[in-house]
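[AMINO ACID CHAIN]
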Amino acid sequence: MRHLPTYFALAALAPAVLGAQMPADLVLVNGTIYTVDKTRPVVSALAVARGLILFAGSDADAKALANAATSVIDLHGATVVPGFTDAHAHLLGLGDMLRRVNLAGSSSYDEVIDRVKARAKDVKPGEWIRGRGWDQNRWPSKEFPTHDALSRAFPNNPVVLERVDGHAYLANAKAMEIARVSVSTADPEGGRIIRLASGAPSGVFVDNAQSLIDRAIPASTRDDTRKAIIAAIAECNRWGLTGIHDAGEDAATIGIFEELAKAGSYNLRNYVMLSDPGEPGSPAALGNPYLRRGPQSALYDGHLWIRAIKLYADGALGSRGAALLAPYADEPANSGLLLSRPEHIRAWADAALRSGFQVNVHAIGDRGNRVVLDAFESALRTAPKPDHRFRIEHAQVLSAEDIPRFAKLGVIPSMQPTHQTSDMGWAETRVGPQRIRGAYAWRSLLNTGVVIPSGTDFPVEEVNPLLTFHAAVTRQDPRNLPLGGWYPDQKMTRDEALQSRTIWPAYAGFQESVLGSLTTGKYADFVVLDRDIMRIPDTEILGTRVISTWIGGKRVYEAK
C-alpha cells in the first residue's frame, strides 16, 4: 500500500498561486522560526495547508493566505524549529523501559537492588522481574556485579536487569536456574559469560550470551507490545520528536506499526530498519515479509518507511564488547567481540545493492568500524552504486586512517552526542590516550565532508533531543562540565547541531525532499520552544521547554 504524496505538485507552485487556490488551514505568526532552509533560514511566520508547508516568510504574507476557517496562532516570540528526528532509536525498547524498572543513573549496586525492590514489591513469587539502565562505570568499584546480592534479595523470582547500552544482562540465580545456565555452559560465538574464579557464571552475560537468558523469558503478548508502542510514541512527542530511525525491529513489531498507522493512530514518522534477517537466501530471510515486499517509502501518509536492514558488527565499549584493533587499555587480554562474521556484512551489502535496501551496521570499536568499511568497500567495488547511503551506526571509536574513508565511500556516520557525555568519565581508560583522539570525533568527520545524523539510541540515553543539541555544541554533561568541554576541538556549531537532528537524518533516510526543513511542499512537522536555542547561552539550553509538537500540521503534544 503506497500513498503517493501531494507535496510534489504543491512544491511546484509559487506561494502566491497556492494562496489563490488553497487557503491555509493553519497560520503561525510573530515567532522566531529556524527553517533549516538555506534560501530563507529565519522567518517570522508559517502557513500550513493539508498537512504540508504552504509558506514560510513574513507575518503579513502568511496572514494573506488565511480565510475565516483558518486557525491563526500568535507565537508571542516563541521559537520554532523543524520537528526533531532521532536518527538512531528503539521505539519498542523505550516502551518496554517505561513498563520496567528504570535503573538509569543508579550510583551503586545497592541502589539498583533498592529500585528493583521498590518497583517489584507487589510481584508474585515466580513472576519475572525486568529492568534496564545499570552502568557499573557509575559505581565506586567500576567492576561488573555478581548475582549474589540480587539473588539474596529475590530468591523466588527470576530477575533480569539489562545494562544501559543493551549489551549485557545481570541475571539472578533463579533466572539462571530456569534458563539452565551452569558452570558447564559454553560461551556462544560473539558472546561472553563473565565467570567467577570457580568458573561458575557470575550473572553477567555480554552480547550474544544474552540469548542464553532470553530463551527462558516469557514472550510479551501482542496487546502488551501494542500498548508499549503507543506509550513510547507519546513520550517521543512530549520531547519534540516528530520522527525516528528505528534501529532494528522484527516483522511482528512492524506489523503493529502498520496497524496503528493505517488507523491514523501513529503520531510519528518512523524510518524502520529490519532486524538482521539471517543469511541472505536463508529460510529466515526468504520468509521475511518485508524483504519480500521490497523497499517501502512514505506509507500511510508518510508515517512509515521500511527500506533498511540493521546488522551488528560488534558490542559496546562500556561492557568491553566493542571490537578493538588492539587490546583494551584496562583489560589487556581482551580485544572485544565481533557479533557478525565480516562475510555476513559483505553478503548483505551485496544483496542490498541489488534490491535497493539500505544497510546500517552497528559498529563501536575501531576494529568493528574497519570490518564494516572493508565490507562496504568490497561490495561497492564489485557493484558500484551511486547514492547508496550505507550507514555505520555509532562510529564511536575510529582509527585515524579510517576517518576519511566515510566520505570516500559515501558512508554516513550516524552518531549519538550524549554517548560522549555519558562515556567521557571512563572511555579514555578503556582505549588509552592515543585512540581516544578518534573517539566521538564529530569535527574530524565533518571536516571530511560527511553529514552526521544524530540521535540518542534511546532508551540507552534519554529521549530529550535538547540533551543531544547541548552535548553536540558544548561536549559537556547536563551540569555543564567539564569546563570548556571534553576534547572541545570536536564540537559542532549550533547550525550543525540543528541540522544533525533535522535535515541530516532526513538525508540519511532518503527523506530530504519531504522532511527535515520548513520548506514549501514538505510535511508540516515542527516544534515550538520557549527559548531560542540558537542564541541563548550554552548554560541555558537545557532549561528550554517544548511548548507543542506538530506532525502534518496537527498538534500531537501541548505542554500543560
